[in-house]
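Example S7 (structure tokens).
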């Protein structure tokens, strides 16, 4: 049946050699017992699926099947909400002990994070400071570049340019964050001190540049969609009034797409707050209060990643790390909620126009 469709046939013929190569590599390295188990139970599962696919439509009425599918879709949608509440409940349950054992003034007002000293200190200000400093620098660098890229793709670039630029941007989004972190540690770690003279090889600016490259595709993609959704009548009216391309973009299109662009910025900020591996490798991880972008800092996510593997289970230090998770989860949730609200209003605005 599948070979009655030419596109599916060509796709199968194209993918078959690669699939065969992957299977041969897997079988060459796998244990023979595992291969036998895989082929036996995989064959049984395949026969069961094919049998049910043939028999069930004849046994179960169509209304029952449709109702079952509706219930499954609804359950899938609500499962994400339940998962969010369960995650927050678990993090808050583990972090609540820290809020009880550590005075809130010391936790949120303390300027030193030294959980392993003779007198442990659990001040979150250095970690919050590092997170906000890196996030702010990232927004300053990535937002103009991302929005400018979106404007160029939507309003200036020709068809061939779009076919080159958009896949390149999507390719940037697919690179793992650890690769960006390694590039920042190796390349920017030498370049920034050579230019600025800072004694800190890994610093907040290093991490911000790395995160800017990572987040620029997200900003460009969402902002480009917002600009593309601006009604064409706006462009036509501006051209009829004799506006130049620059005037049309700056005075008509960007103000009309401001809500969607703001949502792109907020979503990128939320991702910056939650990024771990890249900032862990690129920022130096010194827990200190500073506003200097050339100084080493430590973010909340990096702190959790560094210390969680060695902390004694059930200790105050352990619960303090979950308290950091509570703070981070709350901030990220509020930013995502604000972005979703802005996007909803933008969609309603576009729908009315």
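Recovered sequence:
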């Amino acid at each position: 049946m599948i070979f009655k469709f030419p596109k599916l046939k060509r796709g199968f013929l194209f993918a078959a050699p690669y699939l065969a190569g992957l299977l041969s590599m897997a079988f060459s390295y796998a244990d023979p017992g595992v291969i036998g188990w895989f082929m036996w139970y995989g064959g049984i599962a395949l026969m069961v699926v094919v049998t049910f696919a043939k028999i069930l439509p004849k046994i179960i009425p169509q209304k029952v099947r449709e109702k079952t599918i509706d219930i499954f879709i609804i359950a899938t949608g609500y499962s994400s909400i339940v998962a969010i509440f369960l995650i927050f409940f678990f993090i808050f349950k583990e972090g609540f002990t820290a809020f009880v054992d550590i005075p809130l003034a010391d936790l949120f007002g303390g300027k030193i994070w030294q959980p392993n000293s003779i007198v442990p200190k659990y001040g979150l200000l250095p970690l919050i400071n590092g997170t906000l400093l890196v996030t702010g620098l990232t927004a300053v660098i990535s937002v103009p570049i991302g929005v400018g890229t979106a404007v160029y793709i939507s309003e200036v670039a020709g068809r061939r340019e779009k076919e080159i630029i958009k896949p390149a941007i999507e390719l940037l989004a697919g690179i793992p964050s650890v690769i960006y972190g390694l590039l920042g540690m190796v390349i920017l770690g030498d370049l920034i001190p050579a230019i600025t003279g800072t004694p800190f090889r890994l610093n907040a600016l290093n991490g911000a540049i790395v995160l800017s490259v990572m987040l620029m595709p997200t900003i460009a993609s969402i902002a480009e969609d917002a600009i593309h959704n601006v009604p064409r009548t706006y462009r036509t009216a501006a051209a009829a009034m004799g506006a130049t391309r620059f005037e049309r973009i700056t005075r008509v299109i960007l103000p009309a797409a401001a809500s969607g662009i703001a949502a792109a910025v907020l979503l990128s900020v939320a991702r910056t707050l939650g990024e771990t591996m890249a900032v862990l490798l690129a920022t130096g991880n010194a827990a200190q209060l500073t506003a200097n972008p050339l100084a080493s800092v430590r973010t909340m996510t990096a702190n959790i990643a560094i210390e969680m593997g060695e902390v004694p289970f059930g200790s105050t230090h352990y619960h303090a790390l979950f308290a950091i998770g509570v703070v981070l989860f709350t901030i990220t949730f509020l930013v995502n909620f604000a972005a979703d609200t802005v996007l909803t209003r933008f969609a309603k605005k576009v729908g009315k126009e």
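Notes on this example. The chain is about 80% helix and 0% strand.
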